[in-house]
Task: structure prediction
Amino acid sequence: DLIHVPEFRDIWKDLMLCPSKFNTSRFINVLQLYRTRTCSKYVLLRINPEMETRLRFLMTYVKLGHQKRHQIWFFQKFLHEPDRETIIVDIVRFICCAHHPPNEIIQSDIVPRWAVIGWLLKSCRSSYVEKSVKLALFYDWLYFYESVDSVMNIEPAILLMVHSIQKYIDITHNLLEFLLYLVDNFDVQVENKVLIAKGVSSALQLLAKKGVIHSYDVLIYCPALSPNLKEGLGRLISGVKS
Result:
């Protein structure tokens, strides 16, 4: 996002191409940054306290099916102005990384995180912001390591895809298409592409192992999804290289 700023562009070039310029033996390459999990405290700083309070209330006390008036109020308060739309990216990062409800909430009829993210995704008015929101949703998948990363960070994306099949298949299609696009294009260097594919594969396998999703058949055998998307998903689930 800051690559157009000359000073930042120079730093980014060094990160990618000349890491030795930083003159520290502890920094080898940019992969170290990609693979380092960001503390949730930093994610909290991306939204203001009133936003945090309202969002936590929505996902702690409001029952699914009764959230519309809360969403309308939130949109008018924080997102109505066109220049505020980019804050949706920060909200999605907050929901994925900093709001992890306990099991009693997850298993109840309280508005789930995936539903809030689905609403936010549909609230995007520009394609650029929509793309950034999708990246915010899937970012933790790209270099996922089971021993370090939390399944709660990746749970909303898969549940949003699965629960959207019946009424909002376009969301399922667009999210799966974007995930496959990220695997192939987030980093064009061969070594990095292999690590990304491995991370996404590990994320998918852990989601099934933890019971977040009982089976991927609901996606693999969905007639409304294109064969190419289902084939790509199948490869990632099995960990087979394309």
